[in-house]
Amino acid sequence: MRTHSMKTLALVCSVLALGLSGCNREPATQAAGGAKTLGVVLPNLTNPYYVAMKKSFEDSGAAKGMKVEVSIADNDDAKELSEVQTFVQKKVDAVAVNCVSSGPCVSVISELNKANIPAYAINILPDPDGLKQQGAHIVQGVQTDQKAGGVFIGQQLVKDLGNDANAVIGIVGEPTSTAANARDDGFKQAIASNPNLKVVALVNGKVEETTSLKVTTEMLQGNPNMTVVYSDTEPSALGALAAINQLGLKDKVKLYAFVDKDGVKQIQSGDVLKAGAIQEPVRLASLLVDSVNQQFAGKTPTDLLNSPPLLVNKDNAGQVVDQAY
């Protein structure tokens, strides 16, 4: 009788133990084998840039043995916050956010901080002053070194023209954009090595091809001695290119610019657009996944990674065109 009671007690304990172990299972977001889950929020998938970034997150994460879940904010700050709140509910292990807007993104990061989920930012980072005000923080920001891209383009211009050349330069920019201004600053820094290269005009292309066509046409007509146009976005570059061609100045005016795939193709043709720089969304995502993986392994990533863009000229445009988005 005593033996039977002891067996019964042992059976009950075993059942209780199994029940308790069931309560302590890993979160549902973890993949088979205990793989960590990285949540990613991107602004949209209408821009090929973000399509390339999404695939890189998924491929890079798989290569590191982690699960990657990507949500899309549809260029809506409120939806971006909602998507992050969903990740919080799922108890993912880390979240990477490409902010729709830097200011509202601070609340997104704060939400992750409250849930003790490591927060990362990529490409467009949260406003640093806003982070300080709310006492929020990111583990790491990964972004393109915009100023370096401008430096690369300026250095290529100096090389193409020669150290003692003269040039009258106009810029088709976007004065309200921090990234565009950083690109312009880098360009002007690089050409300062030759005091005979003079920037005489800056017009606002508003990152629009049609607007850039108009303002570049006016700039060239108002500065008949202009020989170089620099554009800090591809839409502005394509508008400036159209203006140069329509005015019949393709043999007089050279164009340098930040570009995407269409711009790289123009550089490849070697006609008016001589050189440019491209951002690399695939590389940015890969770098961030590496940092998340380091943190999962108990290491501390650096606060900020500035990845330089890729210089494109006639020599490498044929190979680079497939990397552009």
Quick description:
With 325 residues, this protein is an alpha/beta fold. It has helices spanning 2-23, 48-63, 77-90, 105-114, 128-134, 146-161, 178-191, 209-222, 234-246, 261-269, 281-296, 317-320; strands at 37-42, 67-72, 94-97, 119-122, 140-144, 167-173, 197-204, 228-231, 254-258, 273-278, 304-307, 310-312. The chain has a six-stranded parallel beta sheet, with helices on both faces. The protein has a six-stranded mixed beta sheet with strand order 7-6-8-9-10-12, sandwiched between helices.
Structure description:
This protein is of the alpha/beta class. It contains 12 helices and 12 strands. The protein has helices at residues 2-23, 48-63, 77-90, 105-114, 128-134, 146-161, 178-191, 209-222, 234-246, 261-269, 281-296, 317-320; strands at residues 37-42, 67-72, 94-97, 119-122, 140-144, 167-173, 197-204, 228-231, 254-258, 273-278, 304-307, 310-312. A 6-stranded parallel sheet has the order 2-1-3-4-5-11, with helices on both faces. Helix 2 (48-63) links the parallel strand 1 (37-42) and strand 2. Helix 3 (77-90) runs parallel beside helix 4 and helix 8 (209-222) crosses helix 9 (234-246). The termini are far apart. The model is unreliable at 1-32 (pLDDT under 50).
Number of strands: 12
Structural class: alpha/beta
What helical percentage do the residues reach?
40-55%
Main β-sheet, spatial strand arrangement: 2-1-3-4-5-11
Order of helices and strands: HEHEHEHEHEHEHEHEHEHEHEEH
Spatial extent as radius of gyration: 26 Å
What is the rounded distance between the termini? 78 Å
Approximate shape: elongated
Mean pLDDT: 91
> Sheet bearing the most strands, described?
6 strands, parallel
Q: What percentage of the residues does DSSP assign to strands (E)?
A: 15-25%
The DSSP helix count reads: 12
